[in-house]
Amino acid sequence: MNTKFLTKILAIAGAVIIGGFSSITSYAVDYTTYQPGEGPHRYAYPYITIATDYGYTTSCKVYTLEVIEAKWGTKAKELFLEGMKTGDYFDFRAYIGNYSSNLWSIITPLYDRSRTYEDDVVLGRELYVFSFLGPYATATDYEEALAPYGFTKDTVWTRDGMNEAAKLPNDTFVHPTKQDYIAKHRSGRSADASSVANSSEIEALKNYAGNSAEFNAYNYYTRYADLQTALGANGDALLNHWNTSGKAEGRIGN
C-alpha cells in the first residue's frame, strides 16, 4: 500500500479520535499519588491538558507519557511535553533519533493494549502535521498551509476541519526540508545533529574514546551551536566542557 495514502488514512482516524475528546478536563497530575482505575481503559485517564503557543489546548494521556519515559527516559518526556506546548516536536525527534515516521506510528505500538485501547489526541494532531508537511514542520506551519484553502484557526483543529483537510489532494503541499525548518524556526538556537555537515572530523566524534552512557561527544557537539563555534570537533575539549560547565548548565551530555 502507498505509504502516503496509508498515512492519510491514519490521519482520518486521528480526526475521529481528536473529535471524540473535544471537552477534556484539564488535570494537575501528581505522579506519586495517581492510582489507576479498573477495566480495560483504566490507564486512559487522566489527561494532561496544555495551553499551546499556537492558540489552542491539546491533551495527552498520562499513560502516553509513562510509555515515552519508560522507552527513552525523563528528558524525552520533557521534550514531548514541550512539543505539546509549541506544536514543534523537532527536539523530541532529535532526542529519540527518528524523523522517518509520524509520532502515532512511533509511540502507540509501545502501548500495552491490555492496559489501554485508546490512542492519543495529541498524537492525532501531530499525525496531521506529518501527513501534510512531513517531519520538519510545526502546528503553526500546518495552520499556515491550510489557510489559503479557507481553514481558519477556529476550524483547522476541529474534527470536521481535519476531515475536510484530508480530502485535499496528496500533492497539495510541499514538504519543507530540514534546512527550511532550521531557517524558519531555529535561527540562533542550538543545532540538531542532522543539521550539521557530516565531515569526517565530526563523524569521528561518534567513536571518541571518552564516550560513555553519560556523555557522547558527537551528540554534544551537534546539539549545541555555541560549542561548535567555541570548541570545534575536539572530543577532549567537549568532554572537559561537559564536566566543568555543561552539567551545571543543564545541558544534555548524551
Identify the strand order in the major beta sheet: 1-2
- Low-confidence stretches are 15-35, 190-198
Radius of gyration: 20 Å
Number of helices: 13
Structural class, please? mainly alpha
Largest sheet: 2 strands, antiparallel
Distance between the termini: 37 Å
Can you walk through the features of this model?
The chain is mainly α and 254 residues long. The chain has 2 domains: 3-185, no CATH class; 193-246, no CATH class. It has helices at residues 3-19, 62-72, 74-86, 90-96, 103-107, 121-133, 139-146, 159-165, 178-185, 200-203, 217-223, 225-230, 235-246; strands spanning 47-51, 57-61. Helix 1 runs antiparallel to helix 8 (159-165), helix 2 packs across helix 3 (74-86) and helix 3 (74-86) runs antiparallel to helix 4. It starts with a helix and ends in an 8-residue tail after the last helix.
Short précis:
The protein has two domains: 3-185, no CATH class; 193-246, no CATH class. It has 13 helices and two strands.
Question: What's the layout of helices and strands?
Answer:
Layout: H1 3-19, E1 47-51, E2 57-61, H2 62-72, H3 74-86, H4 90-96, H5 103-107, H6 121-133, H7 139-146, H8 159-165, H9 178-185, H10 200-203, H11 217-223, H12 225-230, H13 235-246
Antiparallel strand pairs: 1-2
Helix pairs in contact: 1-6, 1-8, 2-3, 3-4, 11-13
Keywords, please?
254 residues; mainly alpha; 2 domains; two-stranded antiparallel ribbon; 13 helices; 2 strands
